[in-house]
Design a protein that fits this description.
single chain, about 20% strand, globular, 16 strands, 9 helices, eight-stranded parallel barrel, alpha/beta, four-stranded antiparallel beta sheet
Length: about 300
Amino acid sequence: MSKVNVSVTLCNIKLNNPTISASGILGTTRALLKRVAENGAGAVTIKSISREPREGHKNPTVITFEAGMLNAVGYSNPGVDKAAREFTNLQDVGVPVIASVVGTHKDDFVRVIEGLSGTEFSAIEIPLSCPHTPGFGLLAGQGTPQATFDITSEVRKVTSLPIFIKLSPNISEICTVAKAAEDAGANAITAVNSMGPGMIINIEAQKPILSFQVGGVTGDALRPIAVRCIYDLYKAIKIPIIGVGGVSTGRHAIEMMMAGASAVGIGTGVYCRGIDIFKKVCEEMIQWIQENSIDDINKIVGAAHD
């Protein structure tokens, strides 16, 4: 078989392949990030960091079902000061490391980014789209065009790193929100966060399973929605798109890139196929593009468009 190129460049960041570990998955320590990188990820994302430490929701926070996963973790994290001490010497991870920053107010985002300024992150992801944590994301009204513009503008003032704005599939005007982020200085859009919230009930106990009762839906159930969002965004904005939502095989990743994604995040897929899913997905992508006589993975980006 002929050699093919699977490296991509995302906002001037070189990735050996287009797979990225999504935020919230295996991103709590530098050692864990390094392990993910050693298992083939092109880049890794830390678990979201807030200004103050958070315990998050009580267990159970995650439950699987036939078509994916339901989760309501509630942004448990050690806070920015402890995170800044944990995420040092990031060049040892071996691949670009993306910070994930959350806040209840635009000043919180600024404070966290300033607190991480001594670290070596390659980019900053800003989720404005969580469907199940009071005070954050959709439950704080951060998914509107105006809120997205305001938060992105404030973040843009305090960092020169690439900014990725993570959006919700729930909002009907996702392209308008993405355009607001682009106008405010975002460098890429991460599409999408979990959808919902949804609910699963234990019929023996006659109660919702998750302690928060509702949670975000990820995995296979989310993928067709995510692909449609990426397809629409590709036509509406000029900045790159990072596709996230239900990717667990090389064919899924190729589908997202054909919709318009320049890189692909993997989250729930780690539960389904193990930590080496990144190697597996890359191998499957290489096999497919070789079988279809394509020599560069970048050539399939947006291929599903006329």
